[in-house]
DNA sequence: TCAAATTTGCTCAAATTTGATTATTTATAA
DNA sequence: TTATAAATAATCAAATTTGAGCAAATTTGA
C-alpha cells in the first residue's frame, strides 16, 4: 500500500470521527504501529492533524459538542469498542443483505468491513457516507432526519424498511436490561429499530459493558430477539436469556 | 503497445482511483516495472501526476464523496455561482415544502439559507448533512446511493417522492438546450429529477451560463417546465421558451 | 534491406520503507 | 508524591523499491 493512501485513509477516518488511536489505525490499515506513528508524525508535521499521546485528533474543531479541556485519553477510543466492531464486521458474508443501525459503535464497525459484495441498508447519514467511501453497495432509508444523531426516523423510514428482508441487522442500543430488554431514549428511533429487527433474519446488538443494567424509556426489543456482541459480560444472568458473544479484547 | 497509450491508461487509472502502485500498473498494462517507472518519470516530469515511492498519485485532489465543510470556502467561490445560489436561497419562505436536488450548485445554495421553518427534502447525502448542520428540518429520499455524486437514485427513491407535494423544487442540470430541454448523463438520476419536478408546484433549475447549449443523454424536463436561475443569459432564444431569472453578479 | 535510433526487460547495488526490539518518556493509579 | 502501565522515539535488520547499466527487441529512415 502506498504511503499516500495511508495518509488519505488516516485523514478520512479522523475527519469522520474526530479521533483515532494508533492501535486502531494499525488494525484498520493492517500495518505496524511503528508505521502508523511515523505517518502521524509526518501528517502532524505538515499540519494535517494533531498528534496526541495514544493517537491523533482531527485538526478542525469537532462540529457539535465543545471539547476543549477533555483529557487526551478520553478523546481516543477504547480498544474494547474496537474489538466489538471488528467482530461484528467479520460476520458479514458476500451474499448478505445487511441493515446497519445508526450509532457510534455501528459506525466504527464500517471501518472494519472488508471488500464484500454484500448490500447495505442504513438509516444513518454518516453511515451511508462511510459505506460509500469504502466503495460498498449502500442504500439509505428515506424519511425525517433527526438532528443530533443524523439518523433517519419517522413513519417514512418505517415504510422504507417494510420492503426489505435483511439477512442480518447490526443494531446499537442505549440500555440492556433483563426485564426491559433493549432500550433507547427516542420513541421514533425505537420504532425504526423495532421494524428493522422484525424484518431481519438475525439481529445483533453491539454494546460495550457500560450498557448493561441501564433502562431507557422505549423498549425496541426483548432480550431474546437479538444476539448481543459485547466486550465483557459482567454477570451471567443475561446469558440465560439470550445468545451472547463475548469478544476478548 | 504505444507509449502514449500507456500514458493515457495510467492517467485514467489515477484519475479514477486516485493512486496506483508500480506493481499494479505493470500488471494491468502487462509490461515490466522498469517501463512503468520510466513512464511515471516522464509523466511526473511533465506535471501530469505525482510520483511517490512505490507508485504515483493523481495530481488533482481526489474527487471523492467528501466535500469539505464550507465556511472558509465561500470566499473562494466564483461570484457567479455564488449569486445564483444566493438568489435561489432567498426564494424560500417559512411555509414552503422544498425539494433540493443533488449537485454542487444546489449544495452551495444551502449555505445561504437563512433560519427558516420550511421543510426540506433532498436526495443528496451531503445536502442532507449540510441542511442538518444548519439546524434545518431535513428529510431524505430512501433508496440506492450512487457512489460518485452521493445521490439517492433508483425506484425506491422515486416511490419516496410520490408521497410528497413540494411547493418548490431546486434542481441542478448538466445541459440546457432549446430542443432537448434539461439533460443529465445518468438515467436513474434523470428519473428522480423528473419525478421531483412532477411533484412540485414550481421548479427552479440552477445553472451557470456554461450549461447552455449542452445536451446529455437523458432529458428530465422540457424547457417550459422549469424556471431557470442563471448568472448571465448568452442569448435571448431561451427566454421565449421559459421563465428565466438572470442574476446580476 | 540494412544500419541507426529507440524502446524494452533484466540485473544489481544503492536507497528507502517497514516491522520488531529496546530504552526512554509520558500518563494514570495508588 | 511514587509506582506501574502504556506509549513513544531510536535503532537496526529485513524487505521492498529505485535508477543505472546493458543487451535484446523493436521501430525508424534511408
Structural class of chain A: alpha/beta
Helix percent of chain A reads 25-40%
For the biggest sheet of chain A, the summary is:
7 strands, parallel
**Arithmetic mean of pLDDT of chain A:** 85
Looking at the structure, the CATH topology of the largest domain in chain A is Rossmann fold
| Uncertain parts of chain A | 62-72
Beta-strand percentage range of chain A: 15-25%
Helix count of chain A equals 9
State the name of the first-level CATH class of the largest domain in chain A. Alpha Beta
Distance between the termini of chain A: 27 Å
Question: Would you count the extended β strands of chain A for me?
Answer: 15
Question: Can you walk through the features of this model?
Answer:
The structure is a homodimer of 249-residue chains. With 249 residues, the first copy, chain A, is an alpha/beta fold. Chain A folds into 2 domains: 3-75, Winged helix-like DNA-binding domain superfamily/Winged helix DNA-binding domain (Arc Repressor Mutant, subunit A); 79-246, Rossmann fold (3-Layer(aba) Sandwich), CATH 3.40.50. Helix content of chain A is 36%, strand content 24%. Chain A contains 9 helices and 15 strands. A 7-stranded parallel β-sheet of chain A has the order 6-5-4-9-12-14-15, sandwiched between helices. A 3-stranded antiparallel β-sheet of chain A has the order 1-3-2. In chain A, helix 2 crosses helix 3 (33-45), helix 5 crosses helix 6 and helix 8 runs parallel beside helix 9. Chain A is globular. Mean pLDDT of chain A is 85; it is low at 62-72. Chain A binds chain B through residues 1-5, 8, 12, 15, 60, 63, 125-126, 128-129, 131-133, 135, 137-145, 147, 150, 152, 156-157, 160, 163, and chain B through 18-21, 52-55, 57, 62, 64-66, 69, 125-126, 128-129, 131-133, 135, 137-145, 147, 150, 152, 156-157, 160, 163. Strand 6 (137-140) of chain A pairs antiparallel with strand 7 of chain B, so a sheet runs across the interface. The structure holds a DNA duplex (30 and 30 nucleotides).
Amino acid at each position: 500500500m502506498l504511503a499516500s493512501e495511508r495518509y488519505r485513509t488516516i485523514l478520512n477516518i479522523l475527519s469522520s470521527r474526530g479521533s483515532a488511536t494508533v492501535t486502531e489505525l494499525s488494525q484498520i490499515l493492517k500495518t505496524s504501529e511503528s508505521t502508523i506513528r511515523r505517518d502521524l508524525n509526518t501528517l502532524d508535521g505538515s499540519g494535517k492533524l494533531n498528534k496526541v499521546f495514544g493517537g491523533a485528533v482531527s485538526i478542525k474543531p469537532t462540529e457539535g459538542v465543545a471539547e476543549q479541556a477533555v483529557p487526551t485519553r478520553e478523546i481516543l477510543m477504547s480498544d474494547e469498542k474496537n474489538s466489538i466492531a471488528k467482530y461484528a464486521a467479520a460476520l458479514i458474508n458476500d451474499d448478505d443483505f445487511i441493515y446497519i443501525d445508526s450509532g457510534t459503535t455501528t459506525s466504527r464497525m464500517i471501518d472494519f468491513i472488508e471488500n464484500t459484495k454484500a448490500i447495505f441498508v442504513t438509516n444513518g447519514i454518516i453511515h451511508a457516507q462511510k459505506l460509500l467511501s469504502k466503495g460498498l453497495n449502500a442504500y439509505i432509508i428515506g424519511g425525517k432526519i433527526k438532528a443530533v444523531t443524523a439518523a433517519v426516523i419517522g413513519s417514512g423510514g418505517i415504510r422504507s424498511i417494510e420492503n426489505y428482508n435483511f439477512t442480518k441487522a447490526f443494531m446499537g442500543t442505549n440500555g440492556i436490561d433483563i426485564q426491559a430488554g433493549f432500550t433507547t431514549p427516542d420513541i421514533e428511533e425505537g420504532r425504526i429499530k423495532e421494524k428493522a429487527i422484525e424484518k431481519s433474519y438475525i439481529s445483533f446488538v453491539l454494546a460495550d459493558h457500560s450498557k448493561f443494567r441501564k433502562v431507557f424509556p422505549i423498549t425496541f426489543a426483548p432480550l431474546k430477539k437479538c444476539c448481543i456482541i459485547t466486550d465483557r459480560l459482567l454477570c451471567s444472568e443475561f446469558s440465560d436469556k439470550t445468545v451472547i458473544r463475548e469478544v476478548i479484547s
